[in-house]
Amino acid sequence: MKHTNLAVAAAVTGLLAVGATTLTSAPAHAAEKEKCYGVAKAGQNDCATNTSSCAGTSTEDGQKDAFVMVPEGLCDRLAGGSTSSS
Description:
The protein is of the alpha+beta class. 34% of the residues lie in helices and 12% in strands. It contains one helix and two strands; from the N terminus they run αββ. Keywords: Signal. Pfam families: DUF2282 (PF10048). This is Signal peptidase.
């Protein structure tokens, strides 16, 4: 019985360690994103624009001051995408 309890305790400890490692690496992924202007569909922007005060309130597709967050480096490859607001 003691060997079984020890094995279960070791397995649970291992799972907790893996979970803690996953949680601590999440902020690093957030830092690898950038704002991409001019590619959001109407109503799909991530934050306020010059003409609207909330996320999801852009009024037209490809609005130049509306952005979405994309992985770093992707925006330059998207048609109409820019890392600066027009």
